[in-house]
Amino acid sequence: MVTTPTEREATIGISGSAAPLESLAERARNADSGALELLLTRVRPLVLRWAVVRTGDADDAEDVTQRVLMSVQQRIGRFDGRAKFTSWLYRVTANAAAEQRRGMGGFERLRGRLRALPSAPYATDPLEHIERERGRRLLRAMMEELTVNQRVALDLVDLQGYSPAEAAELIGMHAGTLRVHLLRARRAIRARILDEHGTMQDGK
Predict the structure, then answer these.
(1) How do residues 183-192 score in pLDDT, each as one tens digit?
(2) CA angle 151, 152, 154 (to 5 degrees)
(3) Which of 178, 165, 96, 110 is nearest to 143 (CA)?
(4) In 81, 108, 145, 147, which residue has its Cα 20 to 30 A from 54's Cα atom?
């Protein structure tokens, strides 16, 4: 069952109060230190997910997440509440991820790591080795073909369950533009899967 954004915002987190993030953000903005601590704990998984999608690199995503949490801690008093807290948080994360990519080249490094992955041992079934290799090639190809905006749209809509309109509002993008990115991402993945499926049928 796919939850709505409101339900997700109310339940994100590891432990603690189920108060909505918007309520926690308002309390934190008014110098409630307990609310700020809980807010940071609860948004961390969300920020990390966004950072992974935008950078394509787990290590870079961790760095971005730490940077975002520090930024929230320092800037929450300047959050004016005119936009939803989650929209503001997404923009902070997107900016931090862009800075990380410019400084570290994370996605290029990830592609290098994927190319350098050693072949797994055959174990007892050589067919398992072949399937793993094909899966690795497919993953690498899909990652290289999608742009950042396409990955973001695909994650928010197809994986997290936001509607295109909700996702567009969250990231500050026109809904029509987001739908274009989503359509292109789906087409790219479908084409790659069909291509790989044909390759497997041909036994290549």
Answers:
(1) 998 888 888 7
(2) 65
(3) 110
(4) 81
Same domain, 94 and 2: yes
State whether 102 and 128 are in the same domain: no
Q: Which residues contact 74 (CB under 8 A, 6 or more apart)?
A: none
For residues 150 and 181, the answer to whether their CB atoms sit within 8 Å is: yes
Report how many domains make up the chain: 2
In a domain? residue 118: no
**Do 5 and 83 reside in the same domain of the chain?**
yes
203: left (phi over 0), alpha (psi -120 to 50) or beta: left
120 backbone dihedrals φ, ψ, rounded to 5°: -75, 150
Query: Residue 29: what residue type?
Result: R
Question: Do 50 and 132 belong to one domain?
Answer: no
Top-ranked range on mean pLDDT: pick from 12-26, 161-175, 180-194? 161-175
75-124 tens-digit pLDDT: 988 888 778 899 999 999 999 988 877 765 444 554 555 444 454 444 45
pLDDT at 6: 44
pTM: 0.63
Question: Who's near 126: CB < 8 A, 6+ residues apart?
Answer: none
Q: Give the CATH number, domain containing residue 155.
A: 1.10.10.10
Cα-based angle 153, 157, 159 (whole degrees, multiple of 5) = 105
Q: What is the 3-state secondary structure (H, E, C) of 66-107?
A: HHHHHHHHHHHHHCCCCCCHHHHHHHHHHHHHHHHHHHHCHH
